[in-house]
Design goal:
The structure is a single chain. By secondary structure, this protein is an alpha/beta fold. It contains eight helices and ten strands. It has a four-stranded parallel β-sheet with strand order 1-2-3-4, with helices on both faces. It has a three-stranded antiparallel β-sheet with strand order 5-6-9. The chain has a three-stranded antiparallel β-sheet with strand order 8-7-10, with no helix packed on it. A hairpin with a 7-residue loop joins β5 and β6.
Length: 253
């Protein structure tokens, strides 16, 4: 963000982003900025400033000054030059100001756990402010997920969103992992983090043949297992491209 109030670091990062986009023959619309926690704050700031096409973050710190004031006053002093109330207020406003600067062509997606203190203290105020400025935030809330566990789930969320972006798929992405079970190599395991208020329907295919189907009530995690079809032999494999996760949608009301 800054070094004792000097924003040269931020400006240099923005210049590097522009330089790399030009070198690769890309535009800002091709840019995706990503990060979780403090990295999520940086992704919003740099993504908005650069005019990125996508910003994908996990549990970002929004009121950065208030967050740093007590547990990390040294970081607050490094960024702002002091730890005064005015500096806290100014730093609290930085991410909100980024929302003001965010282009209508920029899509901002946030993943956060319902048990994460960032949800009520940071993410909800940001979403409320964005709506007041007629800016859209796609918010995915997972039940029972604390801040300490956001990293692994966010990586799944980021991967799923980038896959959606690359394939041009229109549906919302949810975090999931898929692969052979560590306990039984002949068993496939699909584990999905289901957002609050959603229900999950999944279908698992080998080629055109369905090998498993599940419909579950809303919950934090669902794991479905399917044994490979009889007669497929040891060479049988079924990777992510052959997995169809469908009918994942918000519940009515």
């Amino acid at each position: 963000m800054a070094d004792h109030g000097d924003r040269s670091i931020f400006s240099a990062t923005q210049a590097l982003i522009a330089q790399e986009l030009s070198r690769l023959g890309l535009t800002a619309r091709d840019l995706i900025t990503a990060g979780s926690s403090k990295g999520g704050s940086a992704a919003i700031l740099h993504g908005a400033a650069a005019g990125a096409g996508r910003i994908i973050v996990g549990a970002p710190q929004v009121k950065v000054g208030s967050f740093l004031r007590v547990p990390h006053p040294n970081m607050l002093r490094f960024i702002m030059g002091d730890t005064t109330e005015d500096s806290v207020t100014a730093l609290d406003a930085v991410v909100f100001n980024a929302i003001d600067d965010m282009l209508d062509t920029t899509s901002l997606s946030i993943l956060v756990g319902e048990a994460d203190h960032h949800y009520k203290n940071h993410v909800l105020p940001l979403k409320s402010y964005a709506e007041s400025q007629k800016k859209q935030i796609e918010l995915t809330v997972l039940p029972g997920l604390p801040h300490a566990e956001i990293g692994a789930v966010y990586r799944q969320f980021l991967t799923a969103n980038i896959q959606q972006e690359l394939t041009g798929a229109g549906e919302e992405a949810v975090p999931f992992t898929f692969g052979r079970s560590g306990e039984d190599p002949e068993t496939l395991c699909l584990e999905v983090q289901v957002p609050v208020g959603w229900e999950l329907a999944s279908r698992l295919f080998c080629g055109a043949e369905p090998v498993a189907r599940t419909l579950t009530a809303p919950a934090a995690k669902h794991c479905g297992r399917a044994s490979p079809p009889a007669g497929t032999g040891p060479g049988y494999s079924c990777g992510t491209p052959r997995t169809t996760l469908s009918a994942v949608s918000p519940l009515p009301g």
